[in-house]
Design brief:
single chain
Amino acid sequence: MSAENDIFFEQIGVNIRTYRKSKHLTQEQIASKLQMTVTNYSIIERGKIGTTLTTLFKIAKILEVSPTQLILGKDEIFLTKSDIVKLYAEEIK
């Protein structure tokens, strides 16, 4: 993974953690809803690995935010699912 990808994944993790805490949810609660281990969820939230778009969309739904908010930390720019796929594909090159 490149340094740029590291920063990208870390920022998404920070955004996920921020929204999770604002909803007063624990990592255990989110992991359970995602049907994954807390360890795996924690790795995503710490930005140590990227996640699939499917999982990102599931996390957004659980947190009642848009996927854009998880990616950018704000919802000022409207991105379609196609835009997000392109962004993600460019980041992992």
